[in-house]
Write a structure and sequence with these properties.
The complex is a heterodimer of chains A (115) and B (116).
Chain A lengths: L4 E3 L2 E4 L5 E6 L6 E7 L6 E7 L2 E4 L8 E4 L6 E5 L8 E8 L9 E2 L3 E5 L1
Parallel strand pairs in A: 2-11
Antiparallel strand pairs in A: 1-3, 3-8, 4-5, 4-9, 5-6, 7-8, 9-10, 9-11
Chain B lengths: L2 E3 L4 E5 L4 E3 L2 E3 L5 E8 L6 E7 L7 E2 L2 E6 L4 E6 L8 E9 L8 E2 L3 E6 L1
Parallel strand pairs in B: 2-12
Antiparallel strand pairs in B: 1-4, 3-9, 5-6, 5-10, 7-8, 8-9, 10-11, 10-12
The chains are: A mainly beta (115), B mainly beta (116).
């Protein structure tokens, strides 16, 4: 099966600009997650979707970050305006269902550099 | 709040030898899951092994095994017969029982180098 697809692979922007990341999960996976991984740290969950609904966005900085999954398939994560501290790898993951023991599948991430 | 600590920022092992990566965690819950993930330069997180806290038996997956000490809140990963392809960042992660698959708390990782 095809894996979780993310684009772009790399992005460099200046502070105060906006940026968007795209994620296409594995076909049929109902649950989708976005993580932020700052250099030297483990990933931190930002938001999780079940189909096209938000399950948990408690760790998403909503003043500048937004995410959507309109048709319950692919998803976009946006930052507007970007700050220097947003420099990180943004990982997307999906799983078949929200609970139970279905494995979590990760994409290759987008590395964002804010200058 | 739960925390995960990996005290070894970097480790090195000779090819075919055995290495152990350390992880400790803090939680007040009695039921939970623990994981080890591998992150190669491709950045994709790959599940290595998982452990349910209610199981006393240590999990094993081929060359990978864990030493789970619940009372000490310790969860170390042993890699036997190390291979060049094992070189990567390794992250220990915690998930509470009943939580969603992706609601993981990660440690800061250990960079493993494998020498030929």
């Amino acid at each position: 099966e095809a894996g979780v697809a993310q684009s772009p692979r790399y992005k460099i922007i200046e502070k105060r600009q906006s940026v968007a990341f795209w994620c296409n999960p594995i076909s049929g996976h109902a649950t989708l997650y976005w993580y932020q991984q700052i250099l030297g740290q483990g990933p931190k969950l930002l938001i999780q979707f079940q189909n096209n609904g938000v399950v948990d966005d408690s760790q998403l900085p909503k003043d500048r970050f937004s995410a959507e999954r309109l048709k319950g398939v692919d998803s976009t994560l946006k930052i507007q305006p970007a700050k220097l501290e947003d420099s990180a790898v943004y990982l997307c993951a999906s799983s078949l269902v929200l609970l139970a023991n279905s494995p979590l599948h990760f994409g290759n991430g987008t590395r964002l550099t804010v200058t | 709040a739960q925390t995960v600590t990996q005290s070894q920022p970097e480790m090195s092992v000779q090819e075919a030898e055995t290495v152990t990566l350390s992880c400790t965690y803090d939680t007040s819950e009695s039921d939970y899951y623990l994981f080890w993930y591998k992150q190669p330069p491709s950045r994709q997180m790959i599940l290595v092994i998982r452990q349910e806290a209610y199981k006393q038996q240590n999990a094993t997956e081929n060359r990978f095994s864990v030493n789970f000490q619940k009372a000490a809140k310790s969860f170390s990963l042993k890699i036997s017969d190390s291979q060049l392809g094992d070189a990567a960042m390794y992250f220990c992660a915690y998930r509470r029982y009943g939580g969603s698959q992706g609601n993981l708390i990660f440690g800061k990782g250990t960079k493993l180098s494998v020498k030929p």
